[in-house]
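Sequence in, structure out.
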Amino acid sequence: MLQQAFNGLVGGAFYALLALGLSVIFGMLGVVNLAHGAFYMLGAFGAFIALDSFGLNFWVSLVLVPPLMGVAGIVLERLFVRRLTPLDPLYNFLFTFGLALILQDLVKREYGVNSQPYPRPSQLDRTFDLGLFIYPAYQVFVLVISAVVCAAVWLILTRTRVGMIVRAATERPELTRALGIDVGRWVTPVFGFGIALAAFAGVLAAPMRAVNPLMGSDLIITVFAVVVIGGLGSVFGSVAAGFAVGVVSALGNLYIPSLSQTLVFILMAAVLLWRPAGLFGREEAFR
């Protein structure tokens, strides 16, 4: 049971990183970014291409690919998302959905639908003795680095002036504007940052999961459930719900495998019946 719970924490690390980016983007722009999973997939393929075409190892990809995807997100926001934001939210919803399909098909056209192999870094291609069980070193690294990144983002958002402005604009954009802060100037870098987090999770997933064009679409539905459970626009809620959902899914797969695929959505429905705004969301936003 403990080993399966640890598996859940590792899986939840990906949910937490993706949900964190989604939550920040939704909180500031009010955009449900359906292309988030596609950028997660592009992060994994970016690591694969960097190794296959340029001989760049995992560590270099982990440093280079997320900022490059972040720049792509900034360009995307400036050219398209910003123009659609004043309109009905359905326009950005449909745009990001269409963009996800386009990106998936472009990758399919170049690499097909078969999974591409990506080796684990040699430094982590071993096991750790965690006392009660032996565990692959790479999975331990994924859990630790994800927790560190989430904690670092939380510290930046809560302990710096820039972070406080971004958090205020994310969680209460109308009140932030009323206080004279130009929320618009923070929109573009925050959108790029959210995309960079998705790409970072994709690079981490490359040595551990199948690198294929559909890897993002297989994951993003669960990530949206995580964001809803944590509370739309709540940064802390997204991270906490990400790890919690990972553990619940893993234990459900162990004890009630017949419900393993739907357990997350049963949990989401139960949370929404109890708190329509999610565990850490603001009730007033739904009145």
